[in-house]
Amino acid sequence: MKNLFIQLIRFGIVGAIAFLIDYAIMIALTELAGINYLISSGISFTISVIVNYILSVTLVFKRKKDANKSKEFIIFVCLSVVGLGLNQLLMYIQVDLLSIYYMIAKIVATAVVMVYNFITRKLFIEDHSKT
After folding, report:
1. Is 36 left (phi over 0), alpha (psi -120 to 50) or beta?
2. For 29, which of 40, 49, 86, 108 could close a Cys bridge (C-beta 3.0–4.6 Å)?
């Protein structure tokens, strides 16, 4: 249980770093470059996924010893694409249908996607063998 708690703390720190990158890029692209929030949100999310992968496999999840790193990254990206779809759907619902300001909507969407990310990465990336 202690290991899970430490892992959750590390995941939270990695997630916070990725979120700050995601959020800053989204705001810069939307406010400074005039790009639509859905496009800027997609771009920023994609950049943060790469950072998140690197930090997750080095600091959070115990990798499978025999894991094919290319396959692992593809799985990570596929799971993240589903997370991106969930992120975009939540952004659209909140901003366009519920008239919530996009910066606040991003925080809510990120919290939901964070739970999804932890569960799926724990299932598909982490080594579950008893060594």
Report:
1. beta
2. 40
